[in-house]
Design goal:
CATH topology of the largest domain: Jelly Rolls
Largest sheet: 5 strands, antiparallel
Mean pLDDT: 86
Shape: globular
Order of helices and strands: EEEHEEEEEEEEEE
Helix content: under 10%
Low-confidence stretches: none
Length: 178
């Protein structure tokens, strides 16, 4: 007997309904298969003081932007910190946001700048703590979708140290009211 759960995935049970097995997918896999999972990377050589190296604003009208993971690396010892920010991002260029469903082509409804020092921002609170990276290595922080950016709000990733840095965010959109 085949039945379907609320999410449309099959629930398989034997004829007496005695054994049930649900087919589940992670939220990340589901978002990627629907063309709603994205990544954005900024590479920049910092000048020593804390500099905002990546800016990400949720331009979607209704959906929450959920950050799943941040991967950072540096040629020198660095500290990467995520802040909620206000202001108009300047000093950096628009950077490419990639759809994780290869060939899909749907664009993310975001403003993303980086590959240079992002200026014009007022730093708010720290979100997600800080990641310390030793020279020549990378590390990651797995938010598991718990870093949420409401429509119209933004974050920036700040890096310290003097040297080449790299920061990648993986995110998707979700209507949390559904």
């Amino acid at each position: 007997m085949n039945m379907y759960g609320a999410n449309g995935n099959p629930i398989n049970a034997d004829k007496l309904g005695m054994q049930a097995h649900a087919v589940t997918r992670s939220e990340i896999n589901e978002a990627a298969s629907q063309g709603k999972m994205y990544s954005v990377t900024s590479a920049y050589t910092t000048g020593g003081a804390d500099e905002e190296v990546l800016y990400l604003k949720n331009d979607h009208e209704t959906d929450m932007l959920e950050v799943h993971q941040m991967i950072v690396g540096s040629a020198v010892a660095s500290v990467f910190t995520v802040y909620d920010v206000t202001g108009t991002a300047g000093g950096a260029s628009a950077i490419t946001v990639n759809n994780m469903l290869v060939g899909d082509g749907r664009a993310a409804q975001v403003t993303a700048t980086g590959d240079a020092s992002v200026t014009g921002l007022t730093l708010g609170g720290k979100v997600g703590g800080a990641i310390r990276v030793i020279a020549g290595y990378s590390d990651f922080y797995d938010y598991q979708g718990s870093l949420l950016i409401p429509p119209g709000k933004a974050i920036a990733v700040s890096a310290s140290g003097t040297g080449a840095t790299n920061c990648t965010l993986f995110f998707h959109f979700d209507n949390l009211g559904e």
